């Protein structure tokens, strides 16, 4: 079920010079500043020290419709369902869970600390979010492996309420000869995945418990600061 990444890899030091958002997804390697945060969010630590914490869950379909509150311990025992609109997912700005996370830096205002927001996520094997779009940002998997699928335009043959796992099983095999997605497994804790604004993407967690953080950046950066130099062509 995946184990490679077709995205170009660049050193995080290079991205520090980029003055506005790139147009394509890529992997930044060497992001080594969140070791302490990773230790504090190991699955066994979350269970023992944060298990009673009440968290807000949303559905894992394309629209993240509906809300439900449960304890973190209760959520970690749940199994995803085939229908994404019937599966609950923890991914959001849980202040106490994301506290202490160091956000990525770059040269332009588009990822200044006062223009970004981080969301903390935990997902069981087979969970994930169906194809959707939103603003640009970065994602770091601290524990486990997370598979990403990207299309620059609307994906073929997807149902917003069908889980990514079901899409991989029933639709993906028929796409390899005709417009396959960009396919990337994010598995190194020191890697960052950059996702551009308005690119369609879906995610699939591959291990028993996956812990990750996504940092969303300023959506209007390209329009607000067009005079900044462009990043390298990817």
TrEMBL record:
GO MF annotations, alphabetized: cis-regulatory region sequence-specific DNA binding
InterPro entries cross-referenced by the UniProt entry: JmjC_dom, JMJD6_ArgDemeth/LysHydrox
Name of this chain's protein: JmjC domain-containing protein
Stretches assigned to the JmjC domain: 92-234
Organism lineage: Eukaryota, Sar, Stramenopiles, Ochrophyta, Pelagophyceae
GO CC annotations, alphabetized: nucleus
């Amino acid at each position: 079920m995946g184990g490679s990444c077709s995205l170009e890899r660049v050193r995080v030091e290079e991205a520090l010079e980029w003055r506005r958002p790139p147009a394509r997804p890529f992997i930044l390697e060497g992001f080594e500043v969140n070791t302490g945060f990773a230790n504090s969010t190991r699955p066994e630590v979350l269970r023992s020290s944060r298990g009673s914490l009440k968290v807000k869950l949303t559905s894992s379909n394309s629209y993240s419709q509906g809300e439900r509150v449960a304890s973190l311990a209760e959520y970690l025992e749940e199994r995803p369902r085939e229908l994404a609109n019937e599966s609950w997912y923890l991914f959001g700005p849980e202040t106490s869970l994301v506290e202490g996370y160091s956000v990525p830096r770059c040269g332009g205002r588009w990822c200044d600390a006062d223009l970004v927001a981080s969301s903390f996520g935990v997902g069981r094997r087979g969970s994930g979010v169906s194809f959707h779009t939103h603003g640009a940002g970065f994602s770091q998997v601290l524990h486990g492996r997370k598979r990403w699928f990207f299309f620059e335009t609307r994906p073929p043959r997807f149902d917003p309420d069908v889980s990514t796992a079901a899409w991989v099983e029933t639709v993906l095999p028929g796409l390899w000869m005709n417009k396959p997605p960009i396919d990337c497994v994010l598995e190194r804790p020191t890697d960052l995945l950059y996702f551009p604004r308005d690119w369609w993407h879906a995610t699939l967690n591959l291990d028993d418990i996956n812990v990750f953080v996504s940092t969303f950046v300023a959506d209007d950066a390209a329009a607000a600061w067009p005079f900044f130099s462009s990043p390298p062509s990817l």
